[in-house]
From TrEMBL, chains A, B:
SAF domain mapped to chain residues: 21-88
Protein name per UniProt: Altronate dehydratase family protein
Keywords annotated in UniProt: Lyase
SMART domains from the UniProt entry: SAF
Signal peptide as annotated in the record: none
Domain of life: Bacteria
Family under the similarity heading: Belongs to the UxaA family.
Source lineage: Bacteria, Pseudomonadati, Pseudomonadota, Alphaproteobacteria, Hyphomicrobiales
Length: 513, 513
């Protein structure tokens, strides 16, 4: 018996991602005549490609994950293969339709308000972790910052302060020889401030060299930061060298520990969660399993009054219409379009071009239009209205779904979101990213079962079972419950492994001089 | 008795930096009528400023550290203050005079050939240290790389291999979401290759995630790198997650240790030294103490057949004539000018401008022209002919004084030089930088005695005593001997402190997408 014969005996898997969809995605190839979702294929549907489930009139929208991904170029019958030959974009791509579509939210059906156990801070915000941070103003003080953390760990003193999750050094490769009037410098200042004030930080020390462009005193002044039991700073040059600085820093941290240890978890509403949404190492399943499942979880969070941060501007580039239509107001939509123009200029200045169109490989894999490709990335934000748009590392204070401008590169994107105040992070991955962050815990969602099984020590949740029939709504609820657990203290896989000390990567914009 | 009265009783210090100089620099203010170097001041010379020691005709060159820093605007008498009112640049700044001036070298006076104890490698080059390196292709594998190093340290296994200096993780914040056709990607590839092959490395392992833009296999192919007892690579995705990857990496490193431990120091000529020249945290003394003293040491090294790498293009910008005149050939000089043009474009693309002119503060401190300012930075290269010009992280194979294009930012500049093959690094500092590097040891030279004393645990050599009368030639010889000692295994201050695990910072050029 040949492979063909064997395959014919096993029903091909396929997914219909949303009740509004007029198509199904073939997880396995669907042979002609084989029926899925009650519709028989009238031609062979390749693996990863789309089959119409309903008649679609010429010019009518093709709907995937409840969103328009294109329009039928001619009338399409149920069972037909949907791809470039019969889907086009018309003028959709030039029409932002600011704020025309209401966001769609799951009804909570008299559900009990969701809660978690968090650390309420003096400013009213809530942490999910209780870290002491060691920031460095410049690479020149990175080693001193690391030495402080190592000495605190080596000393065993943290055993006396069980409510502290750890001491985390957050060092980087810049901080000097950059234009102090440029946007790169502003980004660094915001990022440092955002980490210093992230609600997952109980207290922070910042160590500098002394002569660097990033002057700690000027930065403190700019943000109104005063020395206190939750913030201390020092420089190597003023303290008289490395050894004395490490000694003084360790002493300062030891003095912070009793205060930091006073924090206690209490029951707080889920509305206090600020969830960063990330994907990295995407694959052909990202857009149909983990991303929409995370989107369902994000919608639940928003329905409960919380905040979800969608980011990675290059991955929605060219399909920003997906979001402008859901913008809470024209002004919010226009801010998103401004970001898009900033990126075009940024790429041009760096001798590149923005291009998020499906590649030949994407198309072979079944992605037809830029809307469909970007929808896969944006799906992790769910269907809520877009409440606000932020620049990189700006403080996120709005409730609901918001967008923060970041690159797609995972550590840089996550650094911006955590600086913005994210207190929990969910990260979808197909190829198997091993990312983890501090002070904000990262939950990793596998898009497919084989990778989940191969990297089970790094993956928190398998979304690959969506391909086997688990409804996205159920998976979304599982993720939401897991987020609440992690927010309450359950340790993620990356926390168990010890990730987070090397993933602080502020976005570098501009020349290193 | 007032301060003035007290000061008058103490002879003001001043330095004449080279026998060819027609001026002295006032270390302390010189009051009218007070004589230094046998010449009485005819007016008050402020601290840090210049006084003529000989008559200078109108239009004749003003010479400092043996170099032209400008031309007399009118006839100048001995004892006169030299500054903007009587020094100008004429058309000097537009005249490269390629290769017109022979480099000037100290005569070695039948001196015995200098040697050091180094590790001769299979390719003929010589190491001054014997490290095992752990490179990462992308930030996504940084934590795995660190964990491997930590596990090797924790295990105590290195005690059985006394000829190995250590295992050094070299991680960074990029490697993905960058233009793989752009120059930033080329720079990263060269940098990684340069570290993998630096003669201070006995063996190297490289760890990746798997799906990153920096594909280890393609990089190996590009440089003809094969897996061997001195090079191993692996990825997290292929190995099945973080824990297994760390385990596999540690096993691979353990297998490398016996080979790495076979290296033995042997007596080799000083011509095998490739000395990286750096300054950071400069002050008003850099250009008259530590930099010319290091220049004297560099000249000695070149006279012995070795190599010295001058860098930090922004700090010689606008005064590249200092070097084009000393170029070994017109072609070498033209390559330097090409770099200058590249930087003008780089700055413009990043919305900045190149400007190395003396600032108002520089001028108040006594620096008159851009030539004088840049001369202070370039002085650490001495007076040798310029043998070759390299791009960032290119392999340095020429003997003599060479120039490598780098930013001024210390960790980025040093990373390029070490990637280029530098096996020892000398770093002058006035404010007190705490820099240290691996696998190449950094020797730190203080420009002034108060900083040296305040940061003596970080500083290797005090050049501040030049202000008290120690001749630059003597200080240069002291530095040269110290370099030979360090090359032979003597540990620098930054090595004693443990620096070098956080200062690998490849130059990021281009957009992070
Ligand atoms: Ca992505
Ligand atoms: Ca990403
Ligand atoms: Ca410099
Ligand atoms: Ca400098
Ligand atoms: Ca420098």
């Amino acid at each position: 018996m040949g492979e063909q014969g064997l395959a014919a005996k096993v029903a091909p898997r396929s997914v219909r991602l949303d009740p509004h969809d007029n198509l199904a995605v073939a997880v396995d190839a669907i042979e002609r005549g084989v029926a899925v979702h009650g519709v028989a294929a009238v031609e062979r549907i390749p693996r990863g490609h789309k089959m119409a489930l309903a008649p679609i009139d010429a010019g009518a929208p093709v709907i995937k994950i409840g969103q328009v991904i294109g329009f039928a170029l001619s009338a399409v019958s149920p069972g037909e293969w949907l791809h470039e030959h019969n889907i086009g974009l018309k003028d959709f791509e030039r029409d932002y339709r600011f704020a025309e579509d209401a966001g769609r939210l799951p009804s909570l059906r008299a559900e009990a308000p969701a809660t978690f156990e968090g650390f309420r801070r003096a400013d009213g915000r809530v942490g999910t972790r209780n870290y002491v941070g060691i920031l460095s103003s410049v690479n020149c003080s990175a080693t001193a910052a690391r030495f402080m953390a190592e000495e605190i760990m080596r000393s065993g003193v943290l055993a006396d302060f069980p409510n502290i999750d750890g001491v985390v050094p957050l060092v980087h490769g810049t901080g000097c020889a950059i234009d102090t009037e440029g946007e790169g410098f502003e980004v660094l200042k915001r990022t440092q401030w955002g980490y210093a004030t992230n609600p997952n930080m109980a207290a922070v020390i910042m160590v500098g060299l002394g002569c660097e462009a990033f002057q700690i005193d000027r930065w403190k002044q700019a943000y109104g930061i005063a020395e206190s039991e939750r913030f201390r700073s020092l420089t190597i040059q003023q303290t008289g060298g490395t050894r004395r600085t490490v000694e003084a820093g360790v002493a300062a941290i030891r003095n912070m520990l009793p205060f930091a240890n006073e924090a206690r978890r209490e029951t707080v509403p889920a509305s206090e969660l600020v969830l960063a949404l990330q994907c990295g190492g995407s694959d052909g399943y990202s857009g149909i399993t983990a991303n929409p499942a995370l989107g369902a979880a994000a919608d639940l969070l928003v329905a409960h009054g919380g905040t979800a941060i969608l980011s990675e501007t290059p991955e929605i580039y060219g399909a920003e219409h997906l979001l402008t239509r859901r913008a809470a107001s024209r002004a919010v939509g226009e801010r998103l379009v401004e970001l898009i123009h900033w990126w075009e200029d940024y790429a041009a200045r760096n001798r590149g071009v923005m291009n998020n169109n499906p590649s030949p490989g994407n198309k072979a894999g079944g992605l037809t239009t830029i809307l469909e490709k970007s929808l896969g990335a944006a799906a992790k934000g769910g269907f809520s209205a877009l409440a606000e748009v932020y620049r990189y590392a700006e403080p996120v204070r709005a409730k609901g779904l918001v967008f923060m401008d970041t690159p797609g590169f995972d550590p840089v994107a996550a650094t911006g979101q955590i600086a913005g105040g994210a207190n929990v992070l969910a990260f979808t991955t197909g190829r198997g990213s091993a990312f983890g962050s501090k002070p904000t815990p990262t939950i990793k969602l596998a898009t497919n079962t084989p990778m989940y099984e191969r990297m089970v020590e790094d993956m928190d949740i398998n979304c690959g079972d969506i391909l086997d029939g688990v409804p996205i709504e159920d998976k979304g609820r599982q993720i939401f419950e897991h987020i609440l657990d992690v927010a309450s203290g359950r340790r993620t896989k990356s926390e168990q492994l010890g990730y987070g000390d090397h993933e602080f990567v502020p976005w570098q914009i501009g020349a290193t001089m």
